[in-house]
Design goal:
A: alpha/beta, Rossmann fold, 4-stranded antiparallel beta sheet, 10 helices, 10 strands, globular, B: mainly alpha
Amino acid sequence: MATTPELMVNNLCVQFGGLKAVDQVCFSLKPQTLAGLIGPNGAGKTTVFNALTGLCPVTSGQISFNEKQLTNEAPHNIARYGIARTFQNIRLFRNLTVLDNLRIAYHQNRQYSLLCSVFRSARFKREEAQITAKAKEALALVDLADKADHIAGSLPYGEQRRVEIARALMLNPKLLLLDEPAAGMNPHETQCLLELIRKLRDDLQITVLLIEHDMKLVMNLCEELFVLDYGHLIATGDPKSIQNNERVVEAYLGGCMA
Amino acid sequence: MNKLSSLIKGIILLLAYLVVQLLERQGVLLPYHVQILSLCCINVILVVSLNLINGFTGQFSIGHAGFLAIGAYASAYLTVVWQAPFLFAIICGGVLAGIAGLAVGLPALRLRGDYLAIATLGFGEIIRVIILNTDAVGGARGFSGIPKYTTFGLAYLMAIFTVVVIRNFVTSDYGRACLAVREDEIAAESLGVNSTYFKVLAFTIGAFFAGTAGALFSHYLQYMAPTPNQIGFVKSIDILIMLVLGGLGSITGSIVAAITLTIIPELLRGFAEYRMIIYPILLIIVMIYRPAGLLAGNELSLSGITQFVKGARAHGNHT
């Protein structure tokens, strides 16, 4: 079993004008870890995700994934390397069906050419059938097989979050980034989500990095935690040690006691 | 089932053509009527191709007449000066317009929303002004003496070809990528869709078909004048109105709207000066009651119609 890190983030800095949203952050992820990125609001967690997926420019530092340099690559290329993500404010294609949402994500694996699609060749039909089957499989994984023909925007919030996860899985990712997957979920839904994430990691053998404010979920699920505060990485370790880390408690509860 | 419905559609299209031919031979349809039908077909090509850009890919372009102008003048030049065969001229017109689409799309599609609209509007006017100042195509006097090559049959065939190609495009992975760009560019990018590529692709394909429509148009009118309402922004807006009225993102909506809005002005000829009052009022009424267009992004389909009829019948049995 390889123990070399899959994802390496080295001295990552992201600056917006005079604001250093992410400052000198270093961390690495081993394959098939369940890791969490936590920190108070505005700590720069989502910015780290955006930098990893190419959505915001990296000011300095390096990101490498399986020894490939990803720093400042275009987002669609990063998706090709096997990094998939969900968004904090759900970005489904709201007016399309759930099935189409998922089929779009198979885009980079599509083999048929433009002419094949215009002339509806046998290859086109065969591959489209495969794509649809694959999408239904991914929907079944998140327990939404019966919602395939619904319009994505019409689903309840919790189901939309799961559709977004299924859509990310259509990329066959090696690393899945989940931005606040449990936001707006009730305790029961959160528990189901926890089991789902664990199942995905075990069945698909992927690495998961998630941002989450629900500490119960984070502490129960994650094997490794990274804590951000004002753009700095202030602590790294397993959930137990993070819970007892003074700097983390200070960041969350304020420093008046120190 | 799928093959059967394609077959039925093919037969309906063939029958429609034969009926027109028969009625024309019997003298029920005058040459004037057949002319209008040809114009309907040309407008269908224009609106469906604009739908690919505006409706499916979500890039608001209002310079479609610019591509029409390129196709119209290039093909006319080929048939008049070089005596080239018409089919060759149509293809050349389309390809040239496609190249122009690519050249304009690459820089312009970095812009979004209103800015893109203004850039494409500007592009359309640039084309018109270039034509206005090119003596080889008649300059401001207009380009006359274009042979009457556009027949109803050819226009009809081209319209069907355009609709089939664009429908097959939008229902493939390519089209889904375009829809993804329209719905949420950031999400599309994060799923591996190269949004710039698909914007430019849709723009180029749309421009190609607008060019072929232009070739049909110039050989239909036999005279091209570089005026705003023939190849300038007024024409672009005309196409846009048809598109919006039919519903962005609905191919059948585009077809219905293109045909209706070509025929209505002709029907209103009897009302002379009131025509330009009645026509906009009709548009306003449609927009009030169907704000997302006649078909609002949905498609008319055979199965949909049969289901509707069955549903109505079942409902009738209940009451």
